[in-house]
Write a structure and sequence with these properties.
It contains no helices and 10 strands. By secondary structure, the chain is mostly beta strands. The chain has one domain.
């Protein structure tokens, strides 16, 4: 039997997950720490592989993806360079995007 999976939305993106998956998502606004339990209620699709898939309009009422926050970190540095030739204009700075790594506990 295929594992149950769901598609949920958070941080302006959509993620396809199954139970036990580790996913990197955009940092959430609230105050969180590692080990916190998170609940995502904006579930767009749930499929168990045996029967029909449940598709929301736009979200499924009562469906939830429960996860545990396993890591708070930042991606590697991205160098941003602005340059204009013949005018001695050069700007360089770096950016590190923060993210949450979550482990999916259950899909209901």
């Amino acid at each position: 039997m295929k594992p149950i999976y769901a598609v949920f939305a958070t941080g302006g993106k959509q993620y396809r997950v199954a139970v036990g998956d580790k996913v990197k998502i955009e940092k959430l606004d609230d105050d969180h720490k590692e080990g916190d339990k998170l609940i995502f209620d904006k579930v767009l699709l749930v499929d168990d592989g045996a029967t029909e898939a449940t598709i929301g309009t736009p979200f499924i009422k009562g469906a939830e993806v429960k996860a545990t926050l396993s890591k708070i970190a930042r991606y590697k540095t991205i160098d941003v360079i602005k340059y204009k030739q013949k005018s001695r204009y050069f700007k360089k700075y770096g950016h590190r995007q923060p993210y949450f790594e979550i482990k999916i506990d259950s899909i209901t």
